Amino acid sequence: MAQSKLDLLQGTLDLMVLRTLSALGPLHGYGIARRIERVSGDQVLLNQGTIYASLVRLQQRGWIAAEWGVSGNNRRAKYYSLTKRGAKQLLAGTENWERITAMMGRVLTMGSGGGEQ
């Protein structure tokens, strides 16, 4: 699959995965990836390696847990769910993202007069 249409800041995908699991509950990796793609209006395209690298990283940090189950098409799949630590990280990451976007909004909309501080 081609690269993502948008270059994502480091940690952004992890935050999207945490939010997806918070909103929808346990999902397998393919379901998480497709949900993120749909919600982004297909501006983010995730290949298998990208989503699973994020899932491994989040699991190693204790932010998500995984257990085996059976998917809708009757295949064995690993389902991921948000942990309490992951919920705390989601809150902290969301607050940080809101600070960054507010700051970028201020910078990108400043007047061109050059006299602003």
How would you explain this protein's 3D organization?
There is one protein chain. The chain has 117 residues and is of the alpha+beta class. It is 53% helix and 14% strand. It contains four helices and three strands; from the N terminus they run αβααββα. The protein has helices spanning 12-24, 29-39, 48-60, 84-108, and strands spanning 27-28, 64-70, 76-82. The protein has a three-stranded antiparallel β-sheet with strand order 1-3-2. Strand 2 and strand 3 form a beta hairpin. Helix 1 packs across helix 2 (29-39) and helix 2 packs across helix 3. The longest helix is centred in the C-terminal third of the chain and has 25 residues, at 84-108. 21% of the residues are buried.
Index terms:
alpha+beta; 3 strands; single chain; 4 helices
Tally of individual helices: 4
The H-and-E topology, N to C, reads as HEHHEEH
Rg, rounded, reads 17 Å
Query: Runs with pLDDT <50, length 5+?
Result: 1-5
The best one-word shape is elongated
Provide the spatial order of strands within the biggest beta sheet: 1-3-2
Helix content: 40-55%
Total strands: the figure is 3
Largest sheet: 3 strands, antiparallel
Our estimate of the beta-strand percent is 5-15%
Report the span from N to C terminus: 45 Å
pLDDT averaged residue by residue: 88
Class by SSE composition: alpha+beta
SSE layout and pairing:
Layout: H1 12-24, E1 27-28, H2 29-39, H3 48-60, E2 64-70, E3 76-82, H4 84-108
Antiparallel strand pairs: 1-3, 2-3
Quick rundown:
The chain is α+β, with helices and mostly antiparallel strands and 117 residues long. It is built from 4 helices and 3 strands; from the N terminus they run H-E-H-H-E-E-H.
